[in-house]
Every structure is written in C-alpha cells, then in structure tokens.
Amino acid sequence: MRDPRKRIARGLLRFGEKLRYRAPAEPTAASRFVDSDWNAWLFGVIFDQGVLAENAWEAPYLLRRRLGHFSMRRMAEMSVTELRDAVKHTRSQKALHRFTKSMPRWLKSAACWLVSEYRGRAEAIWADCRTAAEVIARLDEFDGIGSKKAHMAAAILRDSGELAGRDFEAINVAVDVHVCRVWKRLGLVKSSNVREIHAVASELHPKYPGALDSPTWTVGRDWCHAHEPDCSGDGVGKPCPLQKQCRIGSRR
C-alpha cells in the first residue's frame, strides 16, 4: 500500500520550489543590510521570535541606526541597559521587539560570543564546519537562538549556498505553531512533539528534511489559520496548494 504521506510531502516540495522562484520583493535598506552583513543576519535570526518575520529582519537595520554603529566589539562592551534603551518603545521610537527584557541580553550575549569565539564575524561560525550538524550545534550555542531557529538558520545558509559541499540530512524542520497545525491537519503527525515531526520529516525527505519547512510555514501563515482555515483563498482568491490532501480542506 502506498504511503499517502509521501504524496503530501511531494506536494509540499513542489510548492517549495515555486516559492524559490517567486519574483523577489523590492529591496529595502533593511533587507540590503541583512543581505550584505552576516552579523546583521545573525541578529535577524535572534530577533525572529514572537514577532512578524518582516519586523524581525528589519530590526538589525533599525538597531544600527539607533546605536550609530553595528560593531560587535562595541556592543559587547555596552551594558544591557544601554541596549535595552535602543530596543524598547519610547515617545520617538517603536519597540524593535516585544521581548524588551530578554532581547537586549540575547543581543549582548551574541556580540560577546562572536568576539570571543569567532573574531567578531558571524560567517566564521560555519566557515570551518565539515557538516551541517556542526553548524546547527554552533548556532544553538547562542542565547536566543536554540534548536528551532538553529535549523531555520542552517536552512537559510544552505539555500543561499553558504553550506555547499556539506551534508544536509541534519537540517530539519523548524517546528513552530504553523508546522504543528498544518502537519496535524494533513495527517502527517498526531502530536506537536518535535522528535516525532523531525522523524517524519527525515523519513519523507531524508536528503534534506528542512526543505519541507518553508512551504509548510507559508501554508500555515497564508491559508491554514488557527481558528478559521482559508482553504479556498488567501485573500486574493488563490486556493491552498494542499487543499485536496488536507482533512479540512478536502471537505470544503
């Protein structure tokens, strides 16, 4: 008997390929900054938690404007209070993140760790790693990243060509509420257990399980909403690409 999960995985991977070839958005000063500075990119990874992704990746650019620099050595020497003043909301500036207590500590810790272990350069994190698993382990060492975002960051590095020549079996799905919700509705998993989700992803796409992450996340954000799934349209009339495979979508 054919495994229906593999058909669903193929649908996700096809949708993922379409995402790769979408016309890029018009670059902004913030996007150019994180695209050209690996330290800014690493800070974007740290900011990318509990807020809209667009806001998280804009935050490093705004932080640089508020500090007047983006030197890891200078940030490592700053107090957490000084960094908190740059992150928090005031009359003249919006908060860069809703975690105004923990985020400044994470940023200072990241700057200190980069200076002490990687010569102040984020690209040195993965430069001498032989495997993707090593990259994930090093990223996981940073306060404010953790396993989930370490896999997400490794996938970004892989897709940008930074990890060419490494194995990709260790890069798995960055499990969040979108992934859990979509995979349950698709019948791929029964629970939100990270180990179960990682095991299923590795079984369905062993060479690069992380390839299933971006299409799943996009389906969860644009169609498969928590309270009222919009299977037939994402606001502009396009149906969910997995509508027929989904337990909910197939009934609509």
Explain what this protein looks like in three dimensions.
It is a single chain. With 252 residues, the chain is mainly alpha-helical. Helix content is 55%, strand content 0%. The protein is built from 13 helices and no strands. Helix 9 (132-140) crosses helix 10 (146-159).
Ordered list of secondary-structure elements with their pairings:
Elements: H1 4-20, H2 29-36, H3 38-47, H4 53-67, H5 72-77, H6 80-87, H7 102-118, H8 124-127, H9 132-140, H10 146-159, H11 177-186, H12 194-204, H13 213-222
Brief sketch in words of this structure:
The chain has 252 residues and is an all-alpha fold. Helices cover 55% and strands 0% of the residues.
Question: Which short descriptors sum up this protein?
Answer:
Endonuclease Iii, domain 2, Endonuclease III, domain 1
Q: State the helix count.
A: 13
Number of beta strands: 0
Q: Any idea how many domains?
A: 2
Provide the CATH top-level class of the largest domain.
Mainly Alpha
Roughly what is the average pLDDT, rounded to an integer?
A: 93
The CATH superfamily label of the largest domain reads Hypothetical protein, domain 2
CATH architecture of the largest domain: Orthogonal Bundle
Q: What characteristic shape results from the CA principal axes?
A: globular
Indicate the percent of residues in helices: 55-70%
User: Could you name the CATH topology of the largest domain?
Assistant: Endonuclease III, domain 1
Query: What gyration radius follows from the Cα positions, in whole Å?
Result: 19 Å
The first-to-last residue Cα distance is 27 Å
SSE order:
HHHHHHHHHHHHH
β-strand amount: under 5%
**Which structural category fits the helices and strands?**
mainly alpha
Low-confidence stretches: none
Q: How would you sum up the major sheet?
A: none
